[in-house]
């Protein structure tokens, strides 16, 4: 589950990580109130208005703006709320902004120059350890830093049993070139950030930029946070942080029905029981010249209702030119699945405009095939895996 910047920052703050503070708003009026509250809390002179969407590069797309007065706050909020923000990380049509964060200006001048760093924490699966990636080159695209100046990116591997050790936090602060108060502040920042990462069951923290302020405090100016979905049961308070507006609507609907659905780019819709068979089916479609339009595991109870819903979900994708149903009847009986397909077909009716190739193998597969053939529906029955693939190829032309 991906979080918005303001939600990620809340989690960081709860673990004692220094952040650029702010209040959320969804109208220009709320924005002004947020700005007033913020000045009372922080004494900030200026405000940064930040569009809350699940994509980075907002600054480049005009989604992060500095406001120097309440009037600026009002005007900028009017511009940003409701806009379709296009950044290098959004789809070409952009993402609609419904919330903005009114944040304190933390790039003020003082005893030293503000300086931006990059820090992320992630699981490195190849070594089975968490890893802190960090760089002196903050505030910009980390991909282009990795491309042009890879020697400016450091990695620190963390042993899960030991956790982050004090010498590692010191090493990071040292490699970032910090001294004195900023050095100490960075150690505290990194230690608490790591605690927050583990404590929130995150799969990714990316803080870009981490800022050394003019008075040598270290704070998170941005926060990209992903939480492990499988750990959400340990954090009931995080569940409401999910923003369905940011997710693929078909995937959300499938999820609510307990179906495992992932949208893909191809033209062959797949309905399969079991994740392994679903993967094999996708391979087979590729080999026969098509491309899967989705991954869909209908699970062990492929009953009529689930089959119907699965068809409806697949048919929402306008790219689908054929549907391949590939069911292995182990516990689930093929004749029941066949009946489910026939019922679904009747219920959905004329809206099924694409050919359906059905391969049912296993328990009662013969009677299933007979049922389908006798149904007079536009459904092509196949018994063998390869046979199904060839039939898909035929209908795609
Ligand atoms: P992103 O573009 O989506 O990564 O959004 P960020 O939160 O990283 O902000 C983008 C850029 O806005 C930062 O790199 C800063 O240069 C600028 N910015 C963020 N906060 C402030 C601030 O408090 N004051 C000023 N002057 N600039 C800021
Ligand atoms: Mn950023």
Characteristic key phrases:
Rossmann fold, four-stranded antiparallel beta sheet, binds manganese (II) ion, 397 residues, six-stranded antiparallel beta sheet, D-amino Acid Aminotransferase, Chain A, domain 1, Dna Ligase, domain 1, 3 domains, alpha+beta, binds guanosine-5'-diphosphate
Walk me through what this model shows:
By secondary structure, this protein is an alpha+beta fold. It has 3 domains: 1-20 and 109-247, ATP-grasp fold, B domain (D-amino Acid Aminotransferase, Chain A, domain 1, 2-Layer Sandwich), CATH 3.30.470; 21-105, ATP-grasp fold, A domain (Dna Ligase, domain 1, 2-Layer Sandwich); 249-396, Rossmann fold (3-Layer(aba) Sandwich). 36% of the residues lie in helices and 24% in strands. The chain is built from 12 helices and 18 strands. Strands 7, 8, 9, 10, 11 and 12 form a 6-stranded antiparallel beta sheet that branches. The chain has a 4-stranded antiparallel beta sheet with strand order 1-6-2-3, with helices on one face. A hairpin with a 4-residue loop joins strand 7 and strand 8 (129-135). The longest helix is centred in the middle third of the chain and has 20 residues, at 180-199. The radius of gyration is 26 Å and the shape is elongated. The relative contact order is 0.09. Residues 56, 208, 222 line the site of manganese (II) ion (MN).
Please provide a brief summary of the model.
Helix 8 (275-287) packs across helix 12 (385-396), helix 9 crosses helix 10 and helix 10 (334-348) runs parallel beside helix 11. The protein has helices at 5-14, 28-42, 70-80, 142-148, 166-175, 180-199, 249-256, 275-287, 304-315, 334-348, 365-374, 385-396, and strands at 22-25, 47-51, 64-67, 84-85, 95-96, 100-104, 115-124, 129-135, 153-158, 202-212, 218-220, 224-227, 260-263, 268-272, 294-297, 322-329, 356-362, 379-382. The chain is an alpha+beta fold.
């Amino acid at each position: 589950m991906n979080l918005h910047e303001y939600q990620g920052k809340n989690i960081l703050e709860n673990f004692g990580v220094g952040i650029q503070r702010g209040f959320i708003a969804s109208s220009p009026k709320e924005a002004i109130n947020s700005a007033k509250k913020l000045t009372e809390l922080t004494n900030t002179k200026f405000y940064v208005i930040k569009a809350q969407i699940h994509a980075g590069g907002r600054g480049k797309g005009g989604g992060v703006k500095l406001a120097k007065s309440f009037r600026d706050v009002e005007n900028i909020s009017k511009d940003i709320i409701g806009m379709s923000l296009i950044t290098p990380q959004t789809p070409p049509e952009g993402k609609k902004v419904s919330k903005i964060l009114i944040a304190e200006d933390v790039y003020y001048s003082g005893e030293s120059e503000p300086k931006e760093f990059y820090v992320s924490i992630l699981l490195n699966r190849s070594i089975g350890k968490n890893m802190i990636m960090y760089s002196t080159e903050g505030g910009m695209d980390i991909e282009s830093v990795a491309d042009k100046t890879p020697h400016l990116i450091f990695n620190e591997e963390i042993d899960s049993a030991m956790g982050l050790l004090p010498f590692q936090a010191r090493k990071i602060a040292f490699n970032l070139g910090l001294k004195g108060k900023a050095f100490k502040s960075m150690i505290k920042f990194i230690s608490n950030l790591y605690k927050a990462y583990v404590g929130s069951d995150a799969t990714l923290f990316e803080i870009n930029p981490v800022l050394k302020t003019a008075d040598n405090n270290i704070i998170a100016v941005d926060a990209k946070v992903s939480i492990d979905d499988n750990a959400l049961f340990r954090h009931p308070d995080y569940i409401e942080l999910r923003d369905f507006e940011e997710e693929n609507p078909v995937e959300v609907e499938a999820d609510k029905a307990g179906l495992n659905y992932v949208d893909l780019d191809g033209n062959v819709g797949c309905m399969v029981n079991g994740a392994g068979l679903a993967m094999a089916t996708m391979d087979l479609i590729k080999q026969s010249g098509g491309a899967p339009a989705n991954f869909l595991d209908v699970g062990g109870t492929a009953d009529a209702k689930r089959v119907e819903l699965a068809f409806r979900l697949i048919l929402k994708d306008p790219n689908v030119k054929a549907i391949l149903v590939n069911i292995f009847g182990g516990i689930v009986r093929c004749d029941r699945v066949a009946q489910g397909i026939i019922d679904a077909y009747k219920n959905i009716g004329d809206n099924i405009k694409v050919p359906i190739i059905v391969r049912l193998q296993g328990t009662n597969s013969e009677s299933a095939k007979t049922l389908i053939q006798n149904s007079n529906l536009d459904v092509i029955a196949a018994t063998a895996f390869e046979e199904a693939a060839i039939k898909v190829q035929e209908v795609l032309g």
